[in-house]
TrEMBL record:
Keywords: Calcium, Hydrolase, Metal-binding, Signal. One of its GO terms (molecular function) is metal ion binding. Residues 77-494 form the Sulfatase N-terminal domain. Pfam families: Sulfatase. This is Arylsulfatase. Belongs to the sulfatase family. Residues 1-21 form the signal peptide. The keyword Calcium applies. The lineage of its organism: Bacteria, Pseudomonadati, Pseudomonadota, Alphaproteobacteria, Hyphomicrobiales. It comes from Bauldia litoralis. The keyword Signal applies.
Amino acid sequence: MKSTVALFAASLLGMAIIAPAAAQTVTGELGSPSATTTIPGDQLPAPQPKFGGEIENDALKSTPWWAPRIVPPEDAPNILLIITDDAGFGVPSTFGGVIPTPALDRVAEMGLRYTNIHSTALCSPTRAALITGRNHHSAGFGVISEQSTGFPGYNSIIPEDKATVGRVLLDNGYATAWFGKDHNTPAFAASSVGPFDQWPTGMGFEYFYGFVGGDANQWQPNLFRNTTQIYPFEGKPGWNLVTAMADDAIDYLNRVNQTQPDKKFFIKYAPGATHAPHHPTKEWVKKIGDMHLFDEGYNKLREQIFENQKKLGVIPQDTQLEAWPSDVIEDWDKLDATQKKLFIRQVEIFAAYAAYSDHEIGRVIQTIEDMGKLDDTLIIYINGDNGTSAEGGLWGTPNEVAYFNGISKMPIDVQMKWYDVWGTEETYNHMSAGWSWAFDTPFTWFKQNASKLGGIRQNMAVAWPARIKDKGGHRDQFMHVIDVVPTILEVTGIPAPETVDGITQAPIEGTSFAYTFDKENEKEPSRHKTQYFEMMGQWALYHEGWLLSTKVNRAPWEAFGPANPDPLNNQVLELYDLTRDYSQSQNIADKNPDKVQEMKELFIREAEEYEVFPMDASVAARIVAPRPNITAGRTEFTYTHPMTGLPQGDSPSILNTSYTFTAEIEVPEGGAEGMIVTSGGRFGGYGFYLKDSKPVFLWNLVDLKRPKWEGPDALAPGKHTIEFDFKYDGLGVGTLVYNSMSGLGRGGTGTLSVDGKVVSTEKLERTMPMILQWDESFDIGSDTLTGVNDADYKPPFALTARLDKLTLKIDRPVLSEDDIKKLTAAQAAATDGAAGEATAIDGQPVQVVQPGPH
């Protein structure tokens, strides 16, 4: 029996009737085990329905009654939401690129190409906007979680009044799953003790298989199933997350389909590609290498992509291509032979990674077709969460961790040492910025640059065979990733909830683009009229075809210099009419001063509404700024039991400080080996271990140097106390961050002692200033993922001595009152416009920030 009811069903089931409640559909006989119902959706979870049976003193005289199972509206589609990483407009073949992306091609041919959708210019901010339907500052993600600061728009905490689309669909009867990159869990809430409310499983996704941070080693990732770390790659040479993730998604889809064929699914599929490290398999490297796509260099590549885009009709024929930025990136013809050889290797690995990832996405789509569900599945495939990354710097790097520690131009001859293993487990690689500029064609600039279309303009293909009939059509309406959630809600017939868990929900801030699915709306003006952009002090405002934007004042690889003290006003403003100037190439600000002022005032109103203030132009400085790490305020740590997997954001930091490790161990007869404590891995970190019964403390300085303190004698069987003490020479970051990153990463003296006797002393000229390898963890008693010194050991390198106690004491530098006065005066001077002329301490220009525990 099937009956369609509205208010009557709501009343019968004891559910609140609050406009705008959706009509309900009940199938089966109410009270029977097989009955289902949709829900009004205004209140999540739906109220418990009133018991509809009869209860007497004994069961034989009573009438049982089961609450109906909640299901989505009958015509709601399955949903596959795909978003790739660090890929600009000119990357995929679907939109004129030279890298083959047949899966994206397939979606576009089944449905529509979208050429005017925008991101936030950075990864986790875009992803927070994507899953909430709110602007990135509204969702707490003004920057990535590793840069979070203590303001509502920047704390990396998605507020409870902005429930994700996963939670909404879950409570409306969908099976929900998330595969791949998360990066919306605060870095200070990513440990095994939680809390887990900001993990995918706490945000409405029943199943999660992926990594929590911003990037991942695809050969040995920091991988989780739900909230449990897993190591499926151990003992499997050639294992790669790109394939493993597709395998797991395919397994999940088949499991749902075989268990409950009529259950609708919502999958967020977010591969790590093409974020660094670029880790494709050898098969894909050969495929791309054999195509010789890049032999003529990045200048020619840009021209080729531009011509392809015009032929495909994904850009207007009169689009202007700006001259190559020779003042920023050297022309290809001026490079020497070694540079060209290295750079071609870099980009072929990148392209192989992109093609490989798209191929595996294609396998997931094929699985949906094989289940007979493709017609009823809405596929949204977004190419990139921001423009192509230039975080490898002008020359690229074999180790992105080096970039995040201020090494933005590693010498070519040094990089060539990794030429033959580029893209393998021996590198954490990123390509040079010339390729990144080309892959953002026809626009300029990169990821991080929120004022340029190269940083924020993405493209997208959408298919829903049962609904979208304009196969292969193009749509050019202005859109933003915040528009995805309201689109999903509209096509599913599920309203945005008024309350979730009793918390009143903030309005959805995006605009549905479901109207574009119809051919008759192909040329309808965009319904999304106004949109702000802001990222680390660079900002823009779109309004009805106009774009006001700040002139780029910082390249992505320039993250360590003085920050603009007044990013709202201390800017050169540019104005563009995008209805006539598709590529943002003709600045007409001088001709339209009134429009510039009008647009700036509108930007300020938008910024005030969506919690953009206080604006902050600092980049690297925010990585070392205080935040609520669970170790904050502690100076002593004691461990008596092996423990692995504590992420960097939740472990004690020994950067820019003095510290002492003391290990009390017992060596068995026959000697011992193994890891006592380590943090980081092959691309940056430290290890305190026994090698052939000799104590060793080693620093891996971004895979370039490995200073080592080693005892000369093997430890005799029995109890020993071994200690590594490091005296830091710098000021530290307790109550300040440096406007010049040269103030961090100072040197110091390390001393290794055994049973109170000094056995090794060495002075370091420099130390790591910013981060260790952040996809690796703090481990005691063994070493997970990669090791800090491949020459000495291979993980897991379990400790065979007995560890009685490990103590870490941290002695952070403390500023004097006089120092703080100088710094406060320096900051005041900078605020008055004297940036870069601030009073310094010990020769280092600095900036005071809000005090707090580190």
